[in-house]
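User: Quick sanity check before I run a bigger batch. Here is a single chain. Can you write out its predicted 3D structure?
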Amino acid sequence: MSTSTNSSSNSRPRSETFTESPPQSLESTPHRSASKSVSFSKSSTSSSAALGLPPPPLTPIERAAYNQSEFTTLDLDNTGLGLPEHADDLAALCKGLITNIHITSLRLTRNSLDHMGAKALCHALSGGMPLKTLTLGWNNIGPGEHEVDAESIKPSGCRALAYCFEKHETLTHLCVRDNNCADGVVELAEALQSPMSVLEALDLRGNSLDDVGAKAIGMMLGKNRTLTTLYLGENDFGPAGAINIAKGLARKLEIPPPPVRTEDLKVVDGKVVHLEPTFSLSTIRTLDLGGNQIGDDGVRALAKSMDLVKTLNLSWCGIGSAGAKFLAAGLKRKSNGMTNLQVQGNELGDVGARALAKALRNSSSRKATIERIDLGSNGVGDKGATGLAEALAPNPTRGASPLTTLLLDWNEIGDAGATSLAESLGSLGVAPGMRLRMHDSKVTTVGRKILAQLKLSGVDLQVSNYSDAEQRHYPGGFPTAAPSLLQCELCNR
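Assistant: Done. Predicted structure follows.
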């Protein structure tokens, strides 16, 4: 029977920086078996066995190279791969991966692979291993600003990756965030247009993508029909880039009918009936654009093409009240099915909050779908809070709003707004487990007493104000930069 040891990869010794887990787990714990360790160290155990000593433990690199272990997740995060002193380790890893038939998840976050290491790794992965998840965040795969001959090597790492997942028949999840890959995104996007690609989730956050890169992504979205999750947060594109992404989301891809044998043709009223082509819509369900200054114009374009998106992050995007109105109009479309909206850190104000509030409630023509909304740090005051309260109030004919999480941190809401929210959320029909968070608000002791009654109705309530010295610095402190509010399912960050 094997035993497990819970420890992070950064703190455990090199010989234990690996994980054995079922394929579905990306954050698994180390898993060792004494019998397995012995069987994998044939060349190194003879002298130890002669002395009656236990064999030395194998390093993760050795275990991968032997290709005799059946663990499916190899965790080599932050282990120095790519540095000169670990050149032999990287070579051993690549050699082992060429013939490995077990590993489905490979984690190499926060190493120093650069473009050369990425090329070597992708060459190793072309051997046919059943890899499904590859995380390469923070590896400087793109060129550094200090490189004089950057023009000659800019695309090399991204070109290797593009070729890898264009031809790879099992790779479904790829994380290349924070790799300075702006100039290689076009190649990655072109590869994703290949019918051979089966990629489902792609993380390109923090790669300095500009409008040109966003245009390439938009063209890819118009043709790719496997990608469901796309992280583009913390890049550098603006309204033009968002407009092109919206065009890609809205494009209907024509799928020609399959070839039909002559004997299978149908004849109706003396005429041959030909099969009509079908049309496929975008498969994107999670879209992260947070931290890109797309403004109101970018939101206007997205609002018309986000019907199938379930989770949308537009935090810190320079959106004003006009953009909030465009967004609300999109949410009120009959075909819209969004459930999670994040617009923290914009400039919506009371006008924008009231506009979005109308999209949170049911109407005579459609049922609202938003279950979670983050309106933090938007300058929302009592009028905006009152508008939200009115939207949440149960309606005898239209029923209660499906909203279960309302985040209003770092706003200007005082006692009047708190009272309105308390009255609405305390009414009959509030969803069990409703969550309301108002950290760093202007609610005084009076308002807090009123809100405290919500706990009796089963509301998960968290409230603090500017004068609370012990709570003022909400975990992480007040955000000074655009945070990634969607946790990446690839690197769990």
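Confidence is low (pLDDT under 50) at residues 1-48, 144-155, 468-485.

User: Great, the batch can go ahead then.
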